[in-house]
Amino acid sequence: MRMEETQDKDNPVIQKVEEKDASSLVAISGHPLHAMSVHFPIAFVFATLGVDMLYWWTGDTFWLRVGLWSSGGAFFLGMAAGLVGTVELLLVPGIRARAASWAHAISAMTLIAVMGANWGTRVMNPLDVLPQGLLLSGLAAVLTGMAGWHGGKLIFDHGVGLMVSAKD
Fold first, then answer.
1. Is the Cβ–Cβ distance between 38 and 81 less than 8 Å?
2. CA–CA separation, 20 vs 41, rounded Å?
3. Around Cβ 122, how many Cβ atoms within 10 Å?
4. Which helix (H) or strand (E) element contains residue 164?
5. What does each of the 168 residues of the chain score in pLDDT, given as a tens digit?
6. 158, 160, 165, 168 alpha-carbon torsion, rounded to 10°
7. Which helix (H) or strand (E) element contains residue 149?
8. For residue 27, what are the β-bridge partners?
């Protein structure tokens, strides 16, 4: 056992947090909806970055149209995933009590704002993809990594959203 784990067991605050139920309330057949809904926005964020790089490299306006759709998909599907995540954060005391939940929420909400700015830039002036859209796509990719790391920490280290039986 690591020294940190021994200290955690002696800490009454950590014990109180770990006593709270952190299983998902928004689920379909035991599968948390938030965990299921983040995959498409993540894929669209990285697709948009790739599309922007292809446009920069080729100059083909086809990639402008693809970037408009992929950035819109990232934003709107990210909003849906964020809504489900916010409901979980606010309704489940075991999720709300963890600092990592708030770090994940803040990084994810920042990501959604950047994705919205990226899509909005393309809607208002598609030729602003270079350099503004490309920079926003790069920032969105970095923020996706941050939000994903915090979300993974919640699942794998804290067991948030997992629905396991006592037998498991």
1. yes
2. 30
3. 25
4. none
5. 555 555 566 766 566 666 666 677 778 877 889 989 999 999 999 999 999 999 999 999 999 999 999 999 999 999 999 999 999 999 988 889 899 999 999 999 999 999 999 999 999 999 889 999 999 999 999 999 999 999 999 988 888 877 654 445
6. -40
7. helix 132-156
8. 32
Report the amino acid identity of residue 92: V
Tokens representing 12?
């009454």
Dig out the tokens for 6 from the structure. Answer: 């021994």
The encoded tokens of residue 49 equal 């970055």
Give yes or no for a contact between 39 and 16, defined as CB atoms under 8 angstroms apart.
no
Distance of CA 37 to the CA centre of its chain: 9
CA distance 108 to 101: 10
Amino acid type, 127:
L
Task: Please identify which residue in the block is written with the tokens 């970037």.
Answer: 67
